[in-house]
């Protein structure tokens, strides 16, 4: 079918700026050597192909860079900012107190329970974090703490978080970024089919006997982090030729710091 120049000229004004800005995204290389640098950036080994860094850092030229975004709860340094600017988007208990992560002091759960909140949260998280990832040389994001639905039982549900994740993945895709599901094996195929995650980043999947569950959904588009040498060795033996697997210290401290641990299959 041929279109006249006049018809094209008539249609173009109605194409949104968001559509014009949309860029294609690419997946991390399968079974690429991986480094997980959440505790601080450092020069990775030369054979590293895939690299995760915090959203406050920058990607590294020549690598596939994944940007860590704490998408379902706040960062400790942002506590006051959220309370001042968006207090109604923070989850509260029945007694009115903010729902704080018991394992990570200063991190408060985001309230994904209503459609209005989910839209508002995307309007905050997108420009504040995702845009920065796109601008600083990252090719993908991984969205952490998706599992607040089972850590805040009776308040947040899986459906709430999947609906919110769907908005975040669309926002990131429109910026040319692939999106990784972070943990939350309980989603099953819903993470890929509904939320539209492109790959998965899983912690301790060997320890919790979850690795195959993730691979049943994402195939070899998976990155695995273990924090125990024996589980790392077992995972490498079972699937090290298929997916990216690394051993890291639990605080993911930078190379050269006390406690630093790193190995890869």
From TrEMBL:
It catalyses: Hydrolysis of terminal, non-reducing alpha-D-galactose residues in alpha-D-galactosides, including galactose oligosaccharides, galactomannans and galactolipids. The keyword Signal applies. It is an enzyme of class 3 (hydrolase). InterPro entries: Aldolase_TIM, GH, GH114_TIM-barrel. It comes from the Eukaryota. GO terms for molecular function: alpha-galactosidase activity. Residues 34-252 form the Glycoside-hydrolase family GH114 TIM-barrel domain. Its EC number is 3.2.1.22. Keywords: Signal. Residues 1-17 form the signal peptide. This is alpha-galactosidase.
């Amino acid at each position: 079918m041929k279109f006249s120049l006049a018809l094209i000229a008539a249609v173009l004004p109605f194409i949104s700026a968001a559509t014009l800005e949309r860029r294609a995204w690419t997946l991390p290389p399968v079974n690429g050597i991986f480094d997980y640098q959440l505790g601080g950036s450092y020069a990775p080994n030369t054979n590293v192909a895939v690299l995760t860094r915090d959203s406050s850092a920058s990607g590294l030229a020549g690598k596939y860079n994944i940007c860590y975004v704490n998408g379902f709860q706040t960062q400790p340094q942002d506590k006051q900012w959220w309370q001042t600017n968006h207090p109604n988007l923070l989850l509260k208990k029945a007694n009115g107190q903010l729902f704080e992560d018991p394992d990570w002091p200063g991190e408060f759960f985001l309230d994904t329970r209503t459609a209005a909140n989910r839209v508002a949260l995307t309007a905050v998280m997108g420009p504040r974090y995702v845009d920065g990832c796109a601008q600083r040389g990252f090719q993908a994001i991984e969205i952490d703490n998706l599992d607040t639905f089972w850590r805040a039982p009776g308040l947040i549900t899986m459906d709430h978080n999947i609906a919110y994740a769907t908005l975040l993945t669309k926002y990131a895709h429109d910026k040319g970024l692939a999106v990784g599901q972070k943990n939350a094996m309980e989603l099953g195929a819903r993470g890929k089919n509904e939320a539209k995650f492109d790959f998965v980043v899983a912690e301790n999947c060997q320890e919790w006997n979850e690795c195959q569950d993730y691979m049943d959904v994402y195939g070899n588009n998976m990155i695995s982090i273990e924090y125990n040498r024996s589980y790392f060795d077992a995972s490498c033996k079972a699937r090290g030729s298929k997916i990216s697997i690394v051993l890291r210290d639990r605080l993911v401290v930078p190379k050269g710091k006390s406690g630093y641990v790193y190995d890869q299959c």
